[in-house]
Design brief:
- The complex is a heterodimer.
- Chain A is an alpha+beta fold.
- Chain A has helices spanning about 15-25, 55-65, and strands spanning about 5-10, 30-35, 45-50, 70-75.
- The longest helix of chain A has 13 residues, at about 15-25.
- Chain A is globular.
- In chain A, about 40% of the residues are buried.
- Chain B has helices at about 15-30, 40-60, 70-85, 100-110, 125-130, 155-165, 255-270, 270-290, 320-330, 340-350, 365-380, and strands at about 1-5, 65-70, 90-95, 115, 140-145, 170-175, 190-195, 210, 295, 310-315, 330-335, 335, 355-360.
- Chain B has eleven helices and 13 strands.
- In chain B, helix 9 packs across helix 11.
- In chain B, helix 4 (about 100-110) links the parallel strand 3 (about 90-95) and strand 4 (about 115).
- Chain B is of the alpha/beta class.
- Chain B folds into two domains: about 1-10 and about 270-380, Aspartate Aminotransferase, domain 1, CATH 3.90.1150.10; about 15-270, Aspartate Aminotransferase, domain 2 (3-Layer(aba) Sandwich).
- Classes of the chains: A alpha+beta, B alpha/beta.
- At the A-B interface, helix 1 and strand 2 of A face helix 2 of B.
Chain lengths: ~80, ~375
Amino acid sequence: MSDGRYAVVLFHSTSHALRAERVLLAEHVLCKLIPVPRHLSSDCGVCVRVEAASREAVLRALDGAGVEIEGIHSL
Amino acid sequence: MIYFDNAATSWPKPPGMAQAMVRFIDEVGANPGRSGHRLAVESGRIVYAAREAVAALFNAPDPLRVAFGANGTEALNLALRGLLHPGDHVITSSMEHNSVMRPLRALEQQGVEVTAVACSPEGRLDPAALEAALRPNTALIVLNHASNVVGTLLPVAEVGRIALQRGLLLLVDAAQTGGAYPIDMQADGIDLLAFTGHKSLYGPMGTGGLIVGARVDAARLEPLKRGGTGSRSEREEQPNFLPDMCESGTPNAVGLAGLEAGVRWVLERGVAAIRAHEQALTQRLIDGLRQVPGVTVYGGLDAVQQTATVSFNVAGREPSEVGLWLDEECGIMCRVGLHCAPAAHRTIGTFPTGTVRFGLGAFNTVEEVDVAVEAVRRLAQEGP
């Protein structure tokens, strides 16, 4: 799992993650909602997994849409 | 069968509303915002889509500032009990439903000062009278957008300007107008909008919510209940951000699936088109009833200035008697009595007897209005 191919974006809540998914899909950025990896947070919610290569595009898109993130981590 | 009780709950519902709920139960079913598996994510998407639909309908600043709850009453309780503290002054009107008055009277016992500005017998509110009631400690103005008794619209946009100038918050109870009359939270200066899903949003019962405007510091809003949110699970303190802080516990996701379908139907048909249809029916109903000898119609008698809710009485007959006769003899369903709004009935002069209320909706027709007017004429002239 930890081969550096993916990054995960963590949010304050599932609602924020769902909003981020909407924003990224509209920008044609590949993403998937997955359970938050235990080692990153004890949240029982979801986070957004993206390809590591699209990290900058993801941050730009979310920032542009005003979606606040809690953090972005390599997976 | 003629259903004229839309002011209580709209019926029938648009095509697709029930199917959205069935689809949720049969094909999705999982808990939104908790687990991360595909069905839980899909469930979360449906709830989020409902937030987006509601936010679009009311021009809310952000879908994440839509906090869902059980109905308009819960949303009003959240706003009133969550924002008012002993020593604060709150202004309302004399046309409010008990969903506003009862929380306010309870808060009054705890030291909140309450002023109910008197409205005219037609149910109209003079913004100058409201402005005159302001005090240095006024914290909030709460108004229904339209009366659930006579349909009279209150001047929320004008009051919104006053609230903005004075640095106060405006809470609007949109139970009677949401989906049936244009509402633009940002243009109208509405800081908090309480809505219910089962009336003119054409969703199911058990859905509603509070939209928290950008001027409201969410951290100041005290939640009605605390508990699991699926977020910040490591902490035993309630989250302080929207919508999670106000949405503890598993939500009515199946209902919200239906709400989303209802609101999408409203958006597709267009509030302006729905409003035009209802306004035309309302004027026809008012004009028809006024021509019946012995019938008194309440309110401003001008459909432009009210919703599709019309209250009347038949001389010499109790509202309950009229309602029973209309149901049994004519298959016309309406609501009689005080409509949970004693203050409004005092204002229009019908307390404690109440009125007969016809609440029209998007699915009513000119023919139904004409049949109902004829039925009332028959009752008034011949009697049962």
